[in-house]
Design brief:
Blueprint: E1 31-33, E2 40-42, H1 67-82, H2 86-103, H3 106-122, H4 125-141, H5 154-158, E3 166-168, E4 175-177
Antiparallel strand pairs: 1-2, 3-4
Helix pairs in contact: 1-2, 1-3, 2-3, 2-4, 3-4
Length: 193
């Protein structure tokens, strides 16, 4: 029960405030406990049943990886490049190549590669280095025929280290050199290889 009007305060926060009292006090807030982690939120704020805030960070962008989104990312990158905004062109290029990889679209990756090369030719310093990095990434995403590579991880293709020939010991399951005749961990002797 509210003290000012004798009615339960189930309505809006200002329903029980007497006329003229609004200017003397700050508006009342009815607090309702949230269901997550015991935080108290005001009514109308994000609660347990509201949608996650990460769904629509940019209202002009579609939320899924559709062909419309790829075209939008490429168009934005090309428009930014034409306007001389190299950082924006690279940012949109990274988005476009990410969507192109998910959709296995080599045309998108090739177009992004061209944008990255143009930005690298027209810029200096950090932006030039970032453009070269995007170009290298795009080249590593495509094989020699221009198709999207079907690898598990693009990071494996970017690393310069070659996997050494190792094998697993059948006794202790440790990784040892493939040429080893004796496991250095448990002493297991391998047959002639």
């Amino acid at each position: 029960m509210s003290e000012s009007c004798g009615t339960p305060s189930m309505g809006s926060p200002r329903s029980c405030i007497q006329p003229g009292a609004e200017s003397r006090r700050s508006p009342r807030r009815h607090l309702a406990p949230s269901r997550s982690r015991g935080h108290v939120l005001n009514r109308g704020e994000c609660g347990a049943r509201s949608a996650p805030a990460t769904i629509a960070l940019d209202p002009t962008r579609p939320a899924t990886g559709t062909s419309m989104e790829r075209a939008t990312d490429l168009q934005r990158a090309q428009e930014a490049l034409a306007a001389g905004q190299h950082k924006s062109a690279l940012r949109e290029g990274w988005r476009a190549v990410g969507v192109g990889l998910r959709q296995r679209d080599s045309a998108t990756i090739n177009a992004t590669l061209e944008i990255a090369l143009m930005v690298a030719a027209a810029s200096e310093g950090k932006v030039h280095g970032d453009a070269e990095m995007l170009a290298i990434y795009c080249r590593n995403c495509l094989d020699s025929t221009g198709r999207v590579i079907e690898s598990q991880s693009i990071l494996d293709r970017l690393s310069f280290r070659r996997k050494s020939s190792r094998r697993q010991c059948p006794d202790c399951a440790e990784e040892i050199a493939a040429e080893a005749r004796l496991c250095r961990f448990c002493g297991y002797r391998f047959d002639s290889v």
